[in-house]
Design a protein that fits this description.
This protein has 205 residues and is of the alpha+beta class. The protein is built from six helices and nine strands; from the N terminus they run αβββαβββααβββαα.
């Protein structure tokens, strides 16, 4: 290869690296004490943070939702989740999926049986765009319907105030959750910022 060809390749590589660094700088990096340094868009609302867990007496990775009034803990990455991921990797995966579902008009989270795997349940997300479909959010460890209910209640204790059924929504008001084995869905509307309460509405028409 000629010297001019080598110079051309080196120049292209340098430009490519500089372009990548510029793109990363434009994306914005969440660098707050306790937060995972994820590369996220400036408008992303979901990320991960290590949060105290009084039930376990330690900290657990938690999916956080950035409401207009500040970050709120949503989903704890507990041991009842399946899939072989590390807690941090699982948290990042869930946060990434929730960000996609949020843009589609996230409305509810629920659990259902996985039709492809016996004795396996999954937590899924309902959106305005998806309507009756419920795309996968996270796989639970194999178990019964009762175990799936308990796993989701444990995972979403921050939204259910530890499973008591009474929670404080994003407006600071107390509300009652209907989440139960006979009604295995959590209405997320009270916890959403205003823009997310109407996301996906126009596309769903």
């Amino acid at each position: 290869m000629s010297n001019s060809g080598k110079f051309f390749n080196v120049a292209n590589l340098t430009i490519g690296v500089l372009g990548l660094l510029a793109a990363i700088g434009g994306a914005g990096i969440a660098v707050v004490q306790g937060w995972t340094p994820l590369l996220v868009g400036q408008n992303a609302r979901f990320s991960c943070q290590n949060q105290p867990d009084t039930q376990r007496g330690s900290e657990v990775w938690t999916v956080m939702y950035r409401h207009d009034k500040g970050p709120q803990p949503w989903l704890k990455i507990v041991t009842t989740l399946g899939g072989g991921y590390t807690p941090l990797k699982r948290c990042e995966e869930i946060a990434s999926r929730l960000e996609i579902y949020r843009k589609d008009g996230l409305t509810n989270l629920g659990y259902r049986r996985d039709p492809n795997t016996p004795n396996q349940y999954v937590v899924c997300a309902f959106t305005r765009l998806g309507r009756d479909s419920c795309p996968l959010l996270v796989t639970l460890k194999p178990g019964s319907d009762t175990e799936a209910y308990n796993a989701m209640r444990d995972m979403m204790g921050n939204l259910l105030n530890g499973g008591s059924g009474v929670y404080q929504n994003s407006d600071g008001k107390l509300a009652t959750s209907q989440f139960s084995p006979s009604s295995p869905e959590i209405d997320l509307t009270p916890f959403l910022a205003e823009e997310d309460r109407i996301a996906g509405s126009n596309s769903a028409k």
